[in-house]
Fold this sequence. Notes:
By secondary structure, chain A is α+β, with helices and mostly antiparallel strands.
Amino acid sequence: MEGHGSLVIDIKNRKVKDLRLNIFEGSRFFEPLLKGRGYDEVPEISSRICGICVIAHHLTAVKAVEKALGVTPSEQTIELRKLLDLAGLVQSHVLHLYFLALSDYLGYESTLAMIGEHPEVVKRALRMKKLANDASELIAGSPMRQATPVIGGFTSLPTKHQLEHLLRRMKDAKTDAIKTLDLFASLKVPEFERKVECFALAKEKTFAIYDGEQIASTEGLYFPVEEYQQHIKEFVVPYSTAKHSISVSTGESFLVGALARINVNKQHLSDGAKEAMDRIEVRFPNYNPYMNNLAQALEIVHSIDQIVCTLEKLLDVGVKDEKPEVKVRAGEGVAATEAPRGTLYHHYKINNAGRVEYANIITPTAQNLKNMEEDLKAVVPQLLDLPKDEIVLNLEKLIRAYDPCISCSTHFLETKFV
Amino acid sequence: MKIKTAIIGLTACSGCQVQFLNIEALPEILDVLDITYFPLAKGKNSDGPFDLTLIEGCTSTPEQIDEIKKMREKTKTLVALGTCACFGGVNAMKNFYSQEKIEEEVYGGTKLLYKSIEASPISNHVKVDFCVPGCPFDKEGFLDALKRVVMDKKPPKIYHNVCAECKLNERGCLLEKKKFCMGPVVMGGCSALCPRHGYPCQGCRGPSEDAKVETIDAFLKILEDHGIPKEEIPRKFMKYAGVIEPFRRIIYERY
Ligand code: SF4
Ligand code: SF4
């Protein structure tokens, strides 16, 4: 059976001569296809890029188009979007942690195979997923297809009663979030460290996910999202349908995602998440990429706290009946948000008729891919004394810790030593 | 005996595989299905044979066509899961553009080692027993299809359009408010998810049973009377199912 990805490692005298992650997923060419489309179709089409980050793509597109058209959303709209984005983050992290990463550590071939022996773990995963999905369904109409969030606001709003009900369930979910964190804290991750620059969205005193206009890095960069092309350089490698990137200032690969976010913004995690962090005794910044899973678990705790806080705020003021209003004008807009897998950039130029003239999207996977290769190169020599299957398992764990888009996180990955 | 099942992903967003994992009744499904091939979520994957194969995504590389042909030989029942597999989905918009040009735009001058071909629904290459459309597919619709597979019955057929379900929601008609809603020509089965939330139907479930070129003409007339710009129309028809008749003919013959 043909795969979607393969890892080729060329070793000579215990040194890695060459290492390549070949990615040959069917390309989908979104950017050229967006050209000529109406501004209102952009979020819908862009959200079809990735079925795990549907919400992040949708909202980033909304934000970028609004900037291009000069539309300022209301505070209520922003709060509801934050809620939706956090629900999406939790959904994706739960899926990734429980369905893609966990079985590697517990010695099962899949989480589905664990249902007999660990029913409580599988049930917890399904319960958390359902809650996150129910939350996005309430705000967006459906977790997988965003019917309500449009340019300028929402076409339909949740009622007070619905939000109260969600608040109660979210408060209860804290226990599951903590149990998830404890489970991942109990797993033994391989020891490995490689210091790299980490990037994340930043906004004063917040752990930025949806809202924020600056990018910060652990090397001290701090720039407005509009300048992304001056700081991040994307390029094509012939062996991968997904692009690679480097940080312009260092000329090296860099990291985005849960671990990078915590490395950059740890002081702004919720009190609950900070307490949990102290209890499990992890320190950040941390430069072991295998720790990304733990960082995701910590972000779930933070997100649940944040969702509770946002819901309380919304209920406090009450949800007003607002209608989205948009006046079309020509313009250009760049927006970034933190998608589950890392910073996501959407950039559009829109003409007088409200049509897209230029589209550029930089996904987290395109930013992380080169870094993933560099990590793999660095970790291979450390593993050479292990039997071959274990080497492969450790490399797969590393790749899956990164949580790349599906092509490489699936078990299709074939490892070849040459 | 459990049903030996394979789940595979072709060119798509993986949203339909995620939707599969979203099904609340997953534990009960696992009582009926023995999923022996599912690379998205499994480390050990069997070579077959299978009783049931669920395919997400369209084909857009030569290798994928070979892959599903082999799959067809190894499986009793083959299901196209989601709009990409049923109708090509958003991926097939590219068929209306020059492949060279869009490749140049995305990858610049660099020639990739992999070849992209026309995006096509899997039924162009293999016999499909069941089609479960939707972007992503509707969970209820899937469970209904699954029950029929288990009982060895024929696939369900949806005869009504999105409007039929939308009217039950009594939220008023967006088309009457001069919005470009595809509801009249699109297959029902989603409980009018988008119009129910005040967002016009975009056609993600493909053409409805009675959408024929002639009936669509009446719809086009309404759109033109409403002052919808002409170039909007083929774009909307090509978004999810432009390579499927009668949408394909509308795009080529009317515009
Ligand atoms: S039908 Fe839609 S949700 Fe399903 S794989 Fe295709 S683009 Fe994704
Ligand atoms: S809103 Fe759309 S789906 Fe609903 S009745 Fe009107 S045309 Fe049909």
